[in-house]
Amino acid sequence: MREMIISELSQALHDMARSFAHFLPRLIVMLILAFVGWVIAYVVKAVLRSILRLIKFDKLSENAGASQLLAKAALPSATEIVSRFVFWVTWLGFILLGVSVLGILGLQEHIARFFLFLPRLFEAMFIMFFGLLAASFFSRAALLAAVNANMPSPRILSLAVRSIIIVFVLSVVFEELGLAEQTMLVAFGIAFGALMLGLAIAFGIGGRDLAQRFLENKIVRGKKQENEDEMSPL
Amino acid sequence: MNVGEVDILVGLPTHNNAKTIESIVQTIQSGILREFPRERAVIINADGGSRDGTPELVTGISIDDVRPSSNLYALRTLHSISTKYGSNGAGGGVALRTILAAAELLRAKACVVMSPESANIEPDWLSKLLRPVYRDGFDLVTPTYRRHKFEGLLITNLLYPMTRALYGLRIREIYSPEFGFSGRLGTQFLGQNVWNDGSDGSAVELRFTLAAITGKCRIGQSFMGEKLHIERRGADLVPALRQTVGTLFSALEADFPVWSVVAGSQPIPTTGADQEVLLEPLRVNRKRLREMFSTGVAELDSIFQSILSPSTLAELQRIARLGEEDFQYPAELWVRTVYEFAASYQKSVISRDHIIQALAPLFRGRALTFLIENRNASAGEVEQSIEGLCLEFERLKPYLLQLWKSRE
After folding, report:
1. Domain boundary at A80, A104, A128, which?
2. Is it the case that residue A71 has pLDDT exceeding 80?
3. Does A226 touch chain B (CB under 8 A)?
């Protein structure tokens, strides 16, 4: 009996030692992967930061209006955020690669899903950034055109252009990420429809006098104004 | 390939100009008969795809139509050649390029480009632009016109003073659709990289003049007289700003080695009057100008923050609150504004086109001040006012240099 217990114990110890002996190299591989990943992620971060500074990414971000949002939230510059984000994603990727080497059951599937999600995450970020850039550009263009055409409420027009583009960009981003696709689709439809209805009501009812004045100026007084402004800039 | 040579080439860029083109071609032919009867001459019409038969009218007019009325006889054959370069009139640069290429091919000694939109062109205009080139060895001859004191405010308040201060030459009409030039300058400009720089070739006449300045060519100007109904492509303010100020700002970067070392300005040889001013009363809606200035300053605040210095912006906001009678956009502030816009354009703080558009309301403010200051002014006083602005541009040039260097 005693010998049996000792035998089982020694067997268990032996198995544990053997398992540990099998596991230890994998752990070491994981740690090496994590370390190598950290080095690579650090290098990628440094290189990316230099490239972004070279192409004046912060200025692009400022033009897109993203820098102002970051400043309000007391966050670092856009260059720094993108560099850090890429660092963490790269390092996390290596860590997960290392974890998969450990062969822990159930984790493999999650890790595979993470790697499949990465391209979509980058695409969403890309769409978001250039969407903000487009929103900023077109809203500014609308503002300038409205001011130079002497139209009333240029800022409202500019804000409407920006809002429409941002709502559209957000819906595309959420769809890309696969987050609440149906909800976003419905929300976008409602928001866009409400905006259009609001504009129609605003122009139809609120702008009745304005439209009247505009038409009067154009049709009745147009000729007079034309005579008054016979100055050629060139 | 030998296609012959000419002494004089007259370039005529057109696009749907059937209404005026006949009289213009006849006047050109008459000018050639009168002033250059012994020279070999050719009229090159670069047409942008007219649909009203303009090219046919150009080639259909015979010199025999001119002879009976003028009693003049040419000793040479005068050819009129029409060539099509586009289908919608866009790309004025292509028209000039065609004319320059023809001038090079025909080894023209002196060339002139005439506007198809001039309503009162005279035969001696040709001679005034060509003679200094053909006889006196000038490379470029620009015109000066008799203008109303409130016409061409963009030229008198920005283009002329700024180019004068930066490039050091007092060329009154830096952007003109009519000018004479030597074959040498034409060939030199043809070889420059302005045709493939991504621009649509607008305001190529301005680029041409700047190229003559930076190429240290001999430049003169001739007084043409009054020009009626000058219908420019950029008659509206924003397109006019894009074509002229945008072109000038974009030229500053490449020309920095030239203009950064220029101090003061020199007059250029002028045939006839330097400038004549008409003083008839003209109705201008000053209230609208002031409103558009004030609205612009208020609404474009966020854009101006990227372009202007805080002190300039604060000063603009102060004068935007002034009433119509007290309104004044001082020359010094206007010059600082323009220089800050030029520096921001180089830095591309926002889209360059947006920077140019943002200048429009401020220009209206400056135009209003010019109108108020010169409401009852005589020709001499108007000239004094323009001269004062020019000197202000020259005085503040170090400020532009400072802004330019700070961008590094």
Report:
1. A104
2. no
3. no
Average confidence score pLDDT of chain B: 88
In a shared domain, residues A87 and A133: no
Q: What is the pTM of this model?
A: 0.81
Q: Is B203 exposed, middle or buried (0-12, 13-18, 19+ CB in 10 A)?
A: buried
Cα Rg of chain B (Å, integer): 22
Q: List all residues 6 or more positions away from B369 whose beta carbon is below 8 Å from its beta carbon.
A: B327, B328, B329, B330, B334
Q: What is the ipTM of this complex?
A: 0.86
Q: Write out chain B residues lying below 8 Å of A146, CB-based.
A: 299
What is the DSSP secondary-structure string of A158-189? HHHHHHHHHHHHHHHHHHHHTSSHHHHHHHHH
Rounded distance, CA A15 to CA A105, Å?
Answer: 19
From chain A, pick out residues whose CB is under 8 angstroms from the CB of B206: none
- Report pLDDT digits (tens) over B175-227: 888 999 999 999 999 988 777 665 556 688 899 999 999 999 999 999 998 87
- What CATH number is associated with residue B237? 3.90.550.10
Q: Where are the alpha helices (DSSP H) in B135-254?
A: 153-154, 160-167, 183-190, 204-214, 237-241, 247-254
C-alpha distance from B238 to closest chain A C-alpha (Å): 8
Band the pLDDT of A217: cuts 50, 70, 90: low
**Which one of B153, B240, B283 has the shortest CB-CB distance to A227?**
B283
CA separation for the pair A198, A195 (Å, rounded): 5
In a domain, A112, yes or no: no
Nearest CA in chain A to B283: A228
A56 CA: distance to closest CA in chain B (Å): 11
Indicate if A83 and A171 belong to the same structural domain.
no
C-beta atoms of B351 and A137 within 8 A: yes
Pair A89, A166 in one domain: no
Residue A147 sits at the chain B interface (C-beta within 8 Å): yes
Same domain, A67 and A43: yes
- Chain B contact set for A145 (CB, 8 A): 357
Of A104, A139, A162, the position where a domain reaches its end is: A104
CA distance A147 to chain B (A): 6
Residue A227: per-residue pLDDT: 45
Domain that holds residue B185: 8-145+171-241+269-278
Q: What percent of chain A has pLDDT over 70?
A: 85
Considering the domain architecture, whether residues A44 and A94 belong to the same structural domain is answered as yes
Q: Which residue has the higher pLDDT, B88 or A158?
A: A158
* A22 min Cα distance to partner chain B (Å): 60
- Is residue A82 situated within a structural domain? yes
Task: Answer yes or no: do A91 and A125 share one domain.
Answer: no
**What is the Cα–Cα distance from A70 to A48, expressed in whole angstroms?**
19
Select from A144, A150, A156 the residue whose CB has the most chain B CBs within 10 Å, as the one to mutate to test that interface.
Answer: A144
B220 neighbors B141 (Cβ within 8 angstroms) = yes
The answer to whether B232 contacts A234, with C-beta atoms less than 8 Å apart, is yes
Residues A134, A58 within the same domain: no
Q: Does A223 touch chain B (CB under 8 A)?
A: no
- State residue B394's pLDDT score: 97
| A144 contacts in chain B (CB < 8 Å) | 300, 303, 354, 357-358
Q: Does the distance separating the beta carbons of A144 and B357 come in below 8 Å?
A: yes
Query: What is the arithmetic mean of pLDDT over B294-312?
Result: 94
A192 and A139 inside one domain: yes
Q: In this structure, what are the phi and psi dihedrals at residue B325, rounded to the nearest 5 degrees?
A: -75, -35
Residue B322 has pLDDT above 50, yes or no: yes
Can you tell me the distance from the alpha carbon of B32 to that of A155, in angstroms, rounded to the nearest whole number? 57
A234: nearest CB among B240, B288, B303: B240
Residue A34's domain comprises 7-104
